[in-house]
Amino acid sequence: YPSGNLAIMVVREENQLICIAQEDKPRNARIQAVFKSGGRSTCCYPNGAVWINMNIQGGQYFDQAGSRVRRWTWPNSVTSPGPHVPLSPIFISLNRHMGVRILGQDKITVSFLAMGQQAKFNVGTKVQVSDGGRLPPAARLGRDELLLLAFRVRILRLLDRLRGCLNFPSNQQRDKIKLPAYLITQTSKILQLCTSPDVSDELRSSVMAKVNA
């Protein structure tokens, strides 16, 4: 960024490349988008809510309240029985410098513009699911199980906050403390489960409200 803060980085994790875009902050910068070469990607609103979620079969677009606005399937994917939903081109701005353009599974671009110069990153991929390699159906959690998971994470976050209050009485010191990695991971996994088409908008909103309370 013009401020000198890191905006985009590309890292390798085992056999995958991962492109990470983050907000313009010197410390504790929130991740705004993650694109994996294996076909899984997520974009988030500035408040951290999931905006776009994609996998090797298709994607979903959500509003800031967590309600699904639309979904689509990639032309080359094999999905569960039902009509094929084509992708309508998507253009979003993560912030004043970064934007994402989605025209197809292999045509996803992150663009960065600052001080009259532009950089573009092609983060699309071509991952085809054949009949022989159809993914097994993911384990489905019921309403009560999802809510219990959300309550558990909420309680763990409250306990972590309480420990911070005991160890750091000053508000200024507490505000600099980041959530433990395991809590960030558990929160992310619950939000990922909520992006399933089988989860109603009402349940998704309830889970997100409890996790983020």
From TrEMBL:
Domain (FAM194 C-terminal): residue spans on this chain: 1-176
Protein name, as recorded = ERIP6 protein
Gene name, Swiss-Prot/TrEMBL: Erich6
Instruction: Write down the Pfam families for this protein, in alphabetical order.
Output: FAM194
